Amino acid sequence: MNKTLTIQDVMEGLKLEVLAGEAGLLREVKNPSLSKPGLELAGMFDFYEHDRIQIIGSKEGTFFHWLNENDQLIRVKMLFEKEPPAFVFSKNVQVPDLFINLGNEYKIPILKSSYKTSSLFSEMFTFLQAKLAERTSIHGVLLDINGVGVIITGQSGIGKSEVALELVRRGYMLVADDLIEIYQKEKGVIIGEAPDILKRYLEIRGIGIVNVVYLFGAKAYRENKRISLIVKLEKWDDNKAFDRLGLTQNKELIFDTEITTLSLPITEARNTATLVEAAAYDFKSKELGYHSAKTFNSQLNSKIIHNSKIAGERNDD
Question: Does the pLDDT at position 306 exceed 70?
């Protein structure tokens, strides 16, 4: 699943000002990379990457003003004839009238940013990478628990949203409920967020839809979060063997990134929110280098070896 991204989306997302070419705001952006047309302004169009948004920074702006009027007209018109999605000028660059006029003529947006060139390039690249990345979705709840992005999954009606509500009440942050949109920022980094219509909302059976920001304040919600752990809630089954020591670490592949997963058996007597919270804290401690189960297992093995030696010495006597 890939989202359709338009120049208007980019304009709104990065708070850019439209100076000309407003009729072209619905042009699609398909390439997340950016281009700075310095070589093109110098007259070399062999490698013109016209499918990218064009960034005009201080260097490009200064070079443009070094050109005579005839070269300015010829080269800038050649930039427009290939119909790039848009031209974006950084903070300290004065937008030439030629770009304004051609923007309206070719219906190509001319945008102005409040960022300096390097910051503009970085912010826009990050924005486009996130919006144009391949996406998938899963059902569950995504929370930020003490810095750990935790997805809670399980069959319908098992209580995922109720667990999320309790964790938000304890001071943790909701990212998405019911449907989580997921994309890979880079290999090893999976990001989750809520669809626009579901942002900030939790569905609680018997109560209905609640807005966590209105109930608990802005600190109760964040726009997106890197996913580190998937907790699968399962009804207790006496016939199923669950991991009791935590020495086995299961992984689930999302795109080409492995995410740690664990199955959490629940009953009416178990506080599920506390168990999920403990799972997140245990994951974080492992990331910091302390593995409780391995430490316990090592101590247990040492004790067994020690007792075996003592037993052997007694037998020798």
Answer: no
